[in-house]
Amino acid sequence: MLLHEVISGPLEEWAAKRAVIDAGTTYSFSYEELSCRAEDYETAMRRLGFLPGRRVGFIARKSVEMIAAFLGALRAGVVYVPLDPQASYSYWNLVLKELNIQDVISDVPGVSKKLGDVRVYALDPSVMCDGGTTSFLYERDDVRGEVVSPDRLPEDDAFVLATSGSTGRPKGVLISHENALAFVRWASEEVGLCQDDKLLSVAPFHFDLSVFDIYAGLSCGAKVVLAPGLATIFPGQLISTIEDYKISVLYCVPTVLRMLVKSDAFRDGAGCSLRTIIFAGEPFPAQSLRKLMEMLQEVTFYNFFGPTETNVCLAHRLIELPDPMSEIPIGRPASGARITLVDESGALVKPGGIGEILVNGPSVMKGYLKADGFHQAERPFATGDFAQLGADGNFYFRGRRDQQVKVRGARVELATVEAALMASEGVVEAVALVINQDLVAFVSCEGDMDKKTLCQTCAQFLPPGAVPHKFVSVVSLPRLSNGKLDLVALKALAAS
Amino acid sequence: MSEGKQAEILEFIRSLESANDSIDVNTDLISSGVLDSLSVMELVAFLSEKFGVTIPAGDVTPVNLRTVVTLSALVEARSV
Q1: CB contact A260 to B (< 8 Å)
Q2: Which residues of chain B have pLDDT under 70?
């Protein structure tokens, strides 16, 4: 089975049901309309000569049109690569170059003039990007039913998600149809998704949480509602979307849920349509989670865990209110994964010991895409995350092997941020740290620190989520006698 | 009265890490990128404390938080 085939199952039964709705614009497709639209995209891509295996970038805001285009790409065997639509041109150019992508589908006005030799096509035929852009879809009646689908295999490439590599250069995580399906099938069953469910899609499409929203949702005949763009910042907008669309399933990062707790968004019975909330991407402090669970006593909560490379490989269903001082487990194996913990020499750790999480299973990616081509993933895949198996049979997260951190649920390589800071003129030394959920840059400059220039340089090389929130000017970085950074002194500097 | 509120709100906004001194009462705080998930909550906490008003979650919307002028109007509306 292929990933896009998840929606073609009982289509006769669902045909007229709404499949996807954009809460911001209220545009929507029924299951039948979505299927037809996907076919249009498939045909258009074939006519443009996009052969199976070709990679096509997407630089567009979340829309129902984009979901149809993803499905069309999968049908045509084209591998889609969604990029952060809020990033800068230089970041897009960097990723397109590293991943060797020559075609981009976009709804950003004027984008084609700034992407060099990359060919740009307008996502929505009603939106003309600019004079140089080819409108993507042909007239619908003109294209339907002319092209026969080629044989595609479950191990073929489906999509690529870009992440920041530890070397400061972006890399692509290549996911096959069967990789994605292993997670989608497991998650649909675990959560018990059904056609009465209404999922709220909060995560952007370049973030792996969206794989659940789109494919698990559509595979069950549920309604997938795209949250308005600002809903992750404004609790009022998020809660009104949940209310208006009677959302039953919500999957997002703890940062968003904590915002709802802090603003007391669920008072007076608000959000009573919710039945399941899933969080992932970063640890959820038990105290805050407990408050949320107290507000929503009928809701089932899950903690999903796993890097983009494996999708969700561990999961925990919360059965009772957590003790405020306790730690939320990352749970037990998920998506058919086999989990082992190993020490530095690669030997299995003793029972109860801390070790690096190795994952083997159907959801583990095919491999990385880098400037020099495809690198097949080692199996089992070493995540760089440490864990410990508790006496309760659950795994507990125990930190990272390297400098990768989570900022508002998105993964950031500190080395990449530091490399971007150092690229700014006049910077002598720089270090980046996460302090109280903020990404803080400590910079020592030849002259006065120019925050604006630093911000601009960072935006050139980094996705928006990796640009520091705070810049602290230091004469020189405080160090301990052994030469290591004095983290206590840095934290004190950030606070002052 | 309202101008005093605007000045106090503006001063707080300018003190945010993502802000700069060129911000005025009509600057779009959303499109200019001044507000993000944490600063929205900081701002709401500031308004509640400074002006002694309760701002329900349903009021924390882009429309109400777009500029210092709309923020001041929100505080006025909730001060009754």
Answers
A1: yes
A2: 1
Which domains are delineated in chain B?
Answer: 2-78 (1.10.1200.10)
Task: For A429-491, give the DSSP string.
Answer: EEEEEEETTEEEEEEEESSS--HHHHHHHHHHHS-GGGS-SEEEE-SS--B-TTS-B-HHHHH
Please give the ipTM for the structure prediction. Answer: 0.83
Residue B75 has a pLDDT of 95
Q: Are B37 and A237 an interchain contact pair (Cβ–Cβ within 8 Å)?
A: no
CB contact at 8 A, A218 and A199:
no
* Superfamily of domain covering A405-495: ANL, C-terminal domain (3.30.300.30)
Q: Would you state the structure tokens that stand for residue A372, as one six-digit string?
A: 């020099």
Residues of chain A scoring pLDDT < 70: 9-11, 124-150, 166
Residue ranges per domain, chain A?
3-300, 405-495
User: In this complex, is the C-beta atom of A263 within 8 Å of any C-beta atom belonging to chain B?
Assistant: yes
**Taking the mean position of all CA atoms in its chain, how far away is CA A406?**
12
Tell me the torsion sign for CA atoms A467, A473, A475, A481: negative
* C-beta atoms of B40 and A408 within 8 A: no
Which CATH homologous superfamily contains domain A3-300? Answer: ANL, N-terminal domain (3.40.50.12780)
Please write the tens of the pLDDT for every residue from A26-56: 999 999 999 999 998 898 888 888 899 999 9
pLDDT of residue A143: 47
Residue A140 phi, psi (nearest 5): -60, -45
